[in-house]
Amino acid sequence: MDKERLLAINDLLAQGPRPPLLPPPDERRRLREIWGITIEEVASALGQEPDAMAEWEAGRITAGPADTYAYLRLLSGMRERMPLAYEPDWAALRPPSPSAVHASHISNGLANKESVPVGVKAAHRGAAWTAEARDYLRERFLAGDDIAQLAQALGRSEKSLRWQLWHLNLAPRPASDACRSAPAPEPPLPKAYTVEEKRKNHPNAYVRWTPEDEARLADRCAEGASLDELSGELGRNLGAIASRLIKIGAAGRALEETENYGG
Predict the structure, then answer these.
(1) Helix axis angle, 131-143 relative to 158-167, nearest 10°?
(2) For the chain, which has fewer Cβ within 10 Å, the N-terminal or C-terminal residue?
């Protein structure tokens, strides 16, 4: 072997293994949702923070070879165990033939208004869903009521019901009107930043919070530290500080500033 090729081979070996190519972000999310697991469960299995896992799934950050191989193994395992064209048998979620009571409802065309519990029907279109309304929707949908019937009974649009049924894992994700008419062009993915690059500005970015970190955060917040001060002291970005303050129920000046971050 000539010297030039030997040097080239040694150079590649010296670089170490490169992370494997993962499926596109949409495919990562599709496989996870079909498998029925949350981003928190994936993060726990891979030893990641949920926030970092969500960024990774969306393609906004990358990870080292070892973590990427572990993620690829999970995605490949889900893909191998479930056909790509898999679609849950939504009809199987419903019991067989409806009861005689429901049959009388269908013969009338719509459910009796008297059968709808107080507080279940929306006061106006666009009203927030209550726990009672969700329970009623789940119960009546599994009993066999159709969408149009339930929309009338609940005082909501069929589109609103279809989205709520999806959130309850009782129906497939609704297609938007835009998707039905013509597929919208996919926006370009934002630039992917590695965790290492983010840690140049915030040394503890995506590092798991420890009880000691949270205690220190709560104490400094109670002492009147601002979000900027806490970000600098704890080595994390403002969004991470804001979300953690809300999560631990801290009190102080910094908590008031979280309103700018959805708090």
Answers:
(1) 90
(2) N
| Residue 158 near residue 147, CB atoms below 8 Å | yes
pLDDT tens-digit profile of 32-86? 888 888 999 999 999 999 999 999 999 999 888 888 989 999 998 888 886 544 5
253 vs 240: CA distance, rounded Å: 16
What is the DSSP annotation of 138-204? HHHHHHT--HHHHHHHHT--HHHHHHHHHHTTSSPPPPPHHHHHSPPPPPPPPPPEEHHHHTTT-TT
Tell me the pLDDT tens digit for each residue of 103-119.
444 444 444 444 677 77
Q: Report how far Cα 139 is from the mean position of its chain's Cα atoms.
A: 25
pLDDT at 162 over 80: yes
Q: b or e along 12-32 (b: 16 or more beta carbons within 10 Å of the residue's beta carbon)?
A: eeeeeeebeebeeeeebbbbb
DSSP state letters, 247-262: HHT--SHHHHHGGGGT
C-beta pairs of 115-123 under 8 Å, 24+ apart in sequence: 115/153, 116/153, 116/154, 120/154, 121/153, 121/154, 121/155, 122/154, 122/155, 122/156, 123/155
- How far is 121 from 133, CA to CA, in rounded Å? 7
Residue 160 predicted with pLDDT over 60: yes
Tokens of 187: 């926006």
Higher pLDDT, 258 or 190: 258
Joined tokens for residue 43: 């993060």
At 226 the pLDDT is 86
